[in-house]
Amino acid sequence: MKNFQALGLSAGLAEAVQLIGFETPTPIQEKAIPLLLTGNRDFIGLAQTGTGKTAAFGLPLLELVDEDSSATQALVLAPTRELGLQIVSDLENFSEKFKKLNIVAIYGGASISEQIRKVKRGAQIVVATPGRLIDMLGRKAVNLSTIQYVVLDEADEMLNMGFKEDIDEILSKTPETKITWLFSATMPKEVRAIANNYMTEPVELTVGDKNTGNANIEHQYVVVHERDKYSALKRLLDFHPDIFGLIFCRTRIDTQRVAEMLMKDGYNADSLHGDLNQAQRDKVMMKFRNRSVQILVATDVAARGIDVDNITHVIHMNIPDEMEFYTHRSGRTARAGRKGVSIALVSPKETGKIRQIEKTVKTTFVRIQVPAGPEVCQKQLLALMKKVHDVKVNEAEIEAFLPAVYDELKDLTKNELIKRFASIEFNRFLDYYRNAPDLNVNASSSDRGAERYSTGDRFFINLGKMDNLEKADLLEMLDDCCNVGKKHIGKIDIKGAYSFFEVEKEKSDAIVSGLQGVEFEGRPVRVELTEGRRESSSKKSKGRSRSYEGGSSRRGAGRRR
Ligand code: AMP
């Protein structure tokens, strides 16, 4: 593998990069740097975040820009303030020895006059988010007529965020002769259109397969009912005590709700969403970056540009509506050659979407099981023991306290001591998980269920174990009275005094009318749609009364009287 100097970088820059700790170029750097250094070709780089693309365009840019001229020569457009600031910080780190070089960041949510002042002082490189740059252009505070290089970073994200018109306007103000480099994780037709409109015979380079996710990401999913998703999330978090994770929700409200519930349940979590102002967002990000927050719950939009290394898990509370969002979400882990895991919590209805993503992202998802209570306890216990094993003992200071401690514990054997010690924290988990149910939706029924009950209704019925009701009784009753056979019925959940069952939507009316006037073990049967939309009460229907008795042991013994 080549080193940075062999790629054509000057000795000074190659040394700066090495000092930062980059020993060998990443694949995109190895391919793109020699090409971009020529400074005469338009370029498209299809690369995920975390592949080292900032250095791939940043290092050539620093070589090509003339620091002796104060004209603005390079413009980098990025979708978010976070990404923009990260690019500026990387470029500044690489170019510490370029004393005359000014790199200015332009982004919303901060003082525009301060940014105008900085540009006016002379900025060879401007890194901007499109919206704020448009403001600056409106005030004639930036001159783009001297631009030689434009970099569009995370072009697909910029378009997703609705910056298409801004980008068009900005590019129209740059000279025809400029060279454009475009980076994108995915290549939807909108990005292709930008390339066609603004680039001349670009060299196209793909790191990995075009639409393929990062190969270092393991894609997993669990199938759980929507109502069990939060419990499943907690199980997964408890099963990975060292997690440093990002959790995605679809809406701001869900994001806030999940984060609040996690905090209430004692997890070290926080949330990032559009209702926060810039200062609040910065604060959350700082806490996450420096690990004082272990779990960040975020919306897709708010999490754009999150470039935190070492995220171990990305968890999706649901499958995003836009397939490309999945790539962006999961791409927040497994950065810079590390491994990462992406876990989607999928309801039976959503399982079809997994196949869709597999096709789009050309990857295979592995179905995993939500860990059972004892597995979680085992994991927690081992984590606790590891903590005990690795704890740094402050020999000098604890010494004075030990005699009293030894005295207090003198009647306990080593094994007793270990057992009690482990129990102190462990009991909490044992209690919580003692009767923990299996949250996994049965594999075969879930996949079939996804198709069958995607538009299903869930009914409450006023009969349960206390009435000797068993699943077989219910199925028989629905078949006999409503003419709704087993194949139209989904999950049945028999509780103590009542039960729930799922039915194909088309059969709901038949259930409501068919159970009118029916009795089970002398009790009038009452069903209700769980949303409370319709009800069939115990009112006896004219001329029709049927009776059932429960308990499958009595099955077949003349149940209809
Ligand atoms: P990027 O895709 O530019 O956001 O980079 C992702 C991460 O990889 C950042 O933390 C970079 O500092 C790091 N990185 C980039 N290039 C290299 C390299 N050649 N060797 C090691 N780390 C790198």
Characterization of this structure:
There is one protein chain. With 561 residues, this protein is an alpha/beta fold. The chain contains 21 helices and 22 strands. The radius of gyration is 31 Å and the shape is globular. The structure holds adenosine monophosphate. Adenosine monophosphate binds at residues 22, 25-26, 29, 49-55, 307, 309, 335-336.
Keywords summarizing the entry:
7-stranded parallel sheet; binds adenosine monophosphate; disordered C terminus; 561 residues; Rossmann fold; alpha/beta
Report the top-level CATH class of the largest domain. Answer: Alpha Beta
The geometry reads as globular
Strand tally, please? 22
Q: Percentage of helical residues?
A: 25-40%
Q: What name does the CATH topology of the largest domain carry?
A: Rossmann fold
The amount of beta strand, in percent, is 15-25%
CATH A-level architecture of the largest domain: 3-Layer(aba) Sandwich
Distance between the termini: 84 Å
Q: What class would the helix/strand composition place it in?
A: alpha/beta
The largest sheet, given as strand count, sense and whether it forms a barrel, is: 7 strands, parallel
Oligomer type = single chain
Helical run tally: 21
Count of the separate structural domains:
4
Named once each, the bound ligands are: adenosine monophosphate
Radius of gyration: 31 Å
Q: In order across it, which strands form the biggest sheet?
A: 3-4-2-5-6-1-7
Q: Please tell me the overall pLDDT.
A: 86
The H-level CATH homologous superfamily of the largest domain, spelled out, is: P-loop containing nucleotide triphosphate hydrolases
Low-confidence stretches: 443-454, 532-545, 551-561
